[in-house]
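S1.2 Input.
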Amino acid sequence: MSAHTLDVRRLLCPMPVIRTQNKVNELQAGDTLVVSCTDPGVLNDIPAWCRINGHKILSTKEHDDEIIIEVEVC
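S1.3 Output.
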């Protein structure tokens, strides 16, 4: 298990989800991915993508204009 980060700040829908999907495809089950975003649509889009693809949202944090979503790859 290892931790990874992905910076998709300043990208708009659908790019944050596409980049998240591409990165997750490189990872192993049990790995975590911390995604840094600025598009508020990710608050719905990434959790929905995780539900469809069997991954788990570990946390969602908002600070100023930045959204941090931690995903566990399953």
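S1.4 Remarks. The chain has one domain: 3-72.
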